[in-house]
Write a structure and sequence with these properties.
alpha/beta, Kinesin, ten-stranded mixed sheet, binds adenosine-5'-triphosphate
Length: 984
């Protein structure tokens, strides 16, 4: 150990003066640091025992100055003063600490000192506290997170590799023990168990944990800090107590050796009495402080020197301690009496040893003052006497303490024995229980195996029984099935026999029922026939009754008529009677004159009636002649007539009205149109008035009814067997459709008139059939307007067929509707209007882009005269005649307009050709002229309406149309001939 510390202390014990070793210096520094960390408790903070201790041993700073080196007597006095503490504490009424609570807890029983389970956060334990000698917590070393305690120290002695922890002793006490106790047993592990004041003085065979707990408890007690007194007595006492601790350490070392170096980590032992703890605390602290003083005084005998002496047995009682102190004192005295080397005097011989020994050469030294030395010895002797006195007092206190400790030790021994006994009994019980558990386990296993064998055997038996039962059940089932089958067969036979009987019986019943039903059916049939006859009779009676009823109704009507006639006759007769009575009265007065007068009047009346009849007959004859004459007039005048109609201005928004004048309202055959402005060569702007004359000019105020009145004779001509063609020509929006197809236009009025005429002609034995068709010429193609686009077959195109012999035209594949009533004509017109191609242009929203032709074929027969006639009425609504440039049509509309213009030009060409009497009339140049071939010229009567717009904007078109109409009007296209012929 010395070599480890590098100390140079001589091994000889004669000098007893050794320089402080490095380890001792380190220990001294450790103790000094510990003392710095000590928080000196105030008297009020000290435990009661310690407070009493302080009362008994008050500090005496005046006896000896602090700077003065302490002598052995001083340390002995310290020992006595300190050793009294535990005794006083034992004698006082110190309340024992609670179980599990150390003395440190008593000093500061705050919650912060409660033992924590967590290593990382555990506050310094009481053991650590004892190591650090004060409340100041020692910072954690690098050896581990957990503060190193006496427990860990004890663990290191348990053979673990903890020798490296010796680099820094945990506590001053531990440092002292480790470094200053060159005991072989202690140095084996480099550590030693903490000293314990209550350690048994001899090795015992008691339980090791108890001893360990006592050691730990003693170390924890060392954490109690007691202020160090500067008095020499206290130093001496500390020295003594330190020696006593080392004695105990020796004893503990012996115990360690007794338990073969094995140490069990003590369990938590809280059974140490607080008085013992307190005593140990005081002693250990005193030891620490005294050792520090010893280190400061190298001349004083140290504990190591005492411990190093193997001859001197360690004192085991305070008496021995005192004796040892005395011997120490004597040794010190010898040293003191030994001539010292004066520091200022040179050494007679140069010795390499720094201390005085018996071999030291003292020759040459100056003699020292004996008197002074005696005084010093006397003073020291006095002090020694005082120390002795105090030591005796201390001895008594220590003996009390020892007695108390012995008592406590005995109690604990007893308790330990009891615990050992209980432990052994519990161990034996545990062993017994283990044996029982083992035997029970074996029994259980045996039982389980036997039970398993039993279960397997029983399962085999059950399986066998189950198989047997299955076989039996199968046999039983088969037997039962056989029995049931036989029973079923027997039952079947039985029921079959019963069924046969039942069937024969039922068949007999059915036969009876059938015969009965037949007879009943015959009866019912007979009854039904009777009922039929009755019903026929009833029906005949009903018929007869109906007829009777009708006859009765007729008779009733006749009677009613007769009654009415009779009533009238009665009234007439009454009137005549009244007249006759008046006449009788008159006659009675002047009968002859009155009778003559009556006869003359009667003759005049008869004459008037005769004249009236003659006039009526003459009227009829003249009417017939007029019609003949009209037709002859038509034939003579030419068969084309032109009428002009000007529509009214519908809305002022249409624009400025053109200047159209009608000069001759009587004849109504002229229209004067003020032409557009013209600039002459002289620059004079003027507007010409262009006069146009036609067969009839209709002003804007003329209604359709008046217009129809003018053409009704033409319609009548159709009934007389003429081909009549009425067509409207004019620009878009001039009123063509309005005139021809409106609700009161020419077509409805013509049909209505024809119906009326047909009805009238029935009296003359004429019967007519009327068939209508409606076609359209669009882009030089014929379309049937009475057939919708869905119904029409594109493969069946309309074709124009002419019958040259009959001068009639037929459109093949065109739908022809028999018109039996005026309502059918209206329906046909509406249908045609829907199917007609109407497209919008810039000239007119509702511009008709096609020519529509309504063909009404009239066939009449006169049953009386045998005459037959076929006439055709063509009502044509031409498309707009506006010029292409004006219409601004594009694309498809342009093509439409071109076709329209072409067909209209062809119409003009045909009329021109007819007027010229050309042999070839270009009917086939257009579909329109081709369709109207026999309605233009020949035996046809043609009427052209030239429609005029009243607007100034349409003036040019108006003039163009009027010029074209004038051209037509001036054309003589032949004589119309009636188709009326006698029926062969
Ligand atoms: N005499 C009239 N009295 C009142 N309104 C008329 C008369 N004539 C024409 N109209 C009106 O003028 C408008 C154009 O007439 P309509 O459609 O008959 O012209 P259009 O010559 O047939 O034109 P399109 O060639 O485009 O068919 C219509 O709204 C019609 O009602």
């Amino acid at each position: 150990m010395d070599s480890e510390n590098g100390g140079t202390r001589p091994m000889s014990s004669l000098s007893r003066l050794k320089p402080p070793s490095v380890s001792a210096a380190a220990a001294l520094q450790e103790v000094s640091e510990s003392q710095k960390n000590v928080r000196i408790p105030q008297p009020s903070q000290l435990p009661t025992g310690l407070t009493g201790l302080k009362r008994q041993f008050p500090d005496q700073p005046s006896r000896q100055p602090e700077a003065k080196r302490k002598t052995t007597n001083d340390r002995a006095g310290d020992f006595g003063a300190r050793s009294i503490g535990p005794a006083a504490a034992a004698g006082s009424n110190i309340r024992p600490a609670p179980k599990g609570m150390s003395l440190a807890n008593l000093n500061n029983p705050g919650p912060t000192h409660s033992r924590q389970l967590s290593n990382a956060s555990r506050p310094p334990s009481t053991s650590n506290y004892g190591k650090s000698v004060g409340y100041g917590a020692r910072p954690l070393t690098s050896h581990g997170d957990r503060p190193q305690t006496s427990m860990s120290f004890s663990k290191s002695t348990n053979g673990r590799a903890r020798s490296h922890t010796r680099t820094r002793p945990v506590t001053a006490m531990a440092n002292h023990v480790v470094e200053d106790e060159p005991v072989a047993g202690k140095q084996q592990n480099g550590t030693m168990p903490p000293p314990s004041f209550f350690q048994p003085s001899q090795s015992r065979a008691g339980p090791l944990p108890v001893r360990k707990s006592r050691a730990r408890f003693s170390q924890s007690l060392s954490s109690i800090s007691i202020p160090t007194s500067p008095t020499p007595r206290k130093s001496s006492l500390s020295s003594l107590v330190g020696r006593m601790d080392r004695f105990h350490i020796d004893e503990q070392q012996a115990d360690q050796q007794a338990i073969n170096g094995k140490q069990v980590i003590p369990e938590k032992d809280n059974q140490v009495q607080p008085q013992q703890q307190q005593a140990a605390v005081s002693l250990s602290n005193v030891t620490v402080r005294s050792r520090r003083k010893e280190e400061e005084n190298p001349l004083a005998p140290t504990d190591q020197e005492v411990q190093a002496d193997p001859v001197v047995p360690p004192p085991r009682t305070p008496v021995r301690v005192v004796r040892k102190a005395m011997s120490d004192f004597e040794s010190a005295l010898n040293v003191a009496l030994t001539p010292r080397t004066v520091a200022a005097s040179p050494s007679p011989t140069k010795s390499t040893q720094p201390f005085l020994t018996k071999e030291s050469n003292l020759r040459g030294f100056t003699a020292w003052d004996v008197d002074e030395r005696l005084h010093e010895v006397e003073a020291q002797f006095k002090a020694m006497k005082e120390v002795m006195h105090g030591s005796l007092t201390d001895r008594k206190a220590m003996e009390d303490v020892i007695e108390l400790a012995k008592t406590r030790a005995n109690d604990m021994e007893r308790e330990r024995d009891q615990l050992n006994q209980r432990n052994s009994s519990l161990q034996s019980e545990l062993n017994e229980l283990r044996l029982q558990v083992h035997s029970l386990t074996l029994d259980l296993e045996t039982e389980r195996r036997s039970h398993q064998f039993d279960v397997e055997g029983r399962s085999r038996e059950h399986q066998h029984e189950l198989n047997e039962l299955r076989r039996e059940l199968k046999d039983e089932t088969e037997r039962a099935q056989r029995g049931h089958r036989e029973a079923l067969e027997a039952l079947e036979r039985h029921y079959r026999a019963e069924l046969d009987d039942e069937r024969s019986q039922k068949s007999k019943e059915v036969d009876d029922l059938r015969t009965r039903l037949d007879s009943e059916q015959q009866d019912l049939h007979l009854a039904l026939q009777g009922k039929d006859r009755e019903m026929q009779t009833m029906q005949s009676q009903i018929e007869m009754l109906k007829r009777d009823l009708e006859q009765e109704q007729l008779a009733k009507k006749n009677l009613q008529q007769k009654f009415a006639e009779l009533s009238t006759t009665n009234m007439t007769l009454e009137d005549r009677g009244r007249a006759l009575r008046a006449q009788i009265e008159f006659l009675e007065s002047d009968s002859k004159q009155q009778s003559d007068s009556f006869a003359s009047m009667e003759a005049r009346l008869q004459e008037a009636l005769k004249i009236a009849e003659e006039a009526r007959q003459k009227l009829i004859k003249e009417e017939t002649e007029r019609r003949v004459l009209f037709n002859k007039y038509q034939e003579l005048k030419g068969n084309i007539r032109v009428m002009c109609r000007v529509r009214p201005v519908i809305d002022s928004s249409e624009g400025e009205e053109a200047k159209l004048l009608f000069p001759d309202l009587k004849t109504s055959a002229q229209i004067d149109v003020t032409g557009p402005e013209e600039k002459s060569s002289l620059g004079v702007v003027s507007r010409k008035t262009i006069p146009f004359e036609f067969d009839r000019v209709f002003t804007p105020s003329v209604q359709n009814e008046d217009v129809f009145g003018e053409i009704s004779q033409l319609v009548q001509s159709a009934l007389d067997g003429y081909n009549v063609c009425i067509f409207c020509y004019g620009q878009t929006g001039s009123g063509k459709t309005y005139t021809m197809s409106s609700a009161d236009g020419m077509i409805p009025r013509a049909t209505h008139m024809i119906y009326d005429t047909i009805t009238q002609l029935k009296e003359k034995s004429w019967s007519y059939t009327m068939e209508g068709s409606f076609v359209e010429v669009y882009n030089e193609e014929l379309n049937d307007l009475l057939t919708s686009s869905r119904e029409s077959d594109p493969k069946r195109k309309l074709e124009i067929r002419h019958d040259d012999a009959r001068k009639s035209t037929t459109v093949v594949n065109c739908k022809t509707v028999r018109l039996d009533s005026p309502g059918m004509v209206e329906t046909m017109l509406a249908q045609a209007q829907n199917n007609r191609s109407v497209a919008a242009t810039k000239a007119n929203e509702r511009s008709s882009r096609s020519h529509s032709v309504f063909i009404l074929r009239l066939t009449g027969e006169n049953a009386a005269t045998g005459e037959r006639c076929e006439g055709t009425l063509n009502l044509v609504d031409l498309a707009g005649s506006e010029r292409l440039k004006h219409s601004q049509a594009e694309g498809e509309r342009m093509r439409e307009t071109q076709n329209i213009n072409k067909s209209l030009a062809c119409l003009g060409d045909v009329i021109e050709a007819l007027g010229r009497g050309s042999g070839h009339v270009p009917y086939r140049n257009s579909k329109l002229t081709h369709l109207l071939q026999y309605s233009l010229g020949g035996n046809s009567k043609t009427l052209m309406f030239v429609m005029v717009s009243p607007l100034e904007a349409h003036l040019k078109e108006t003039i163009t149309s009027l010029r074209f109409a004038t051209k037509v009007h001036n054309t003589h296209i032949g004589t119309a001939k009636s188709t009326k012929k006698l029926k062969e």
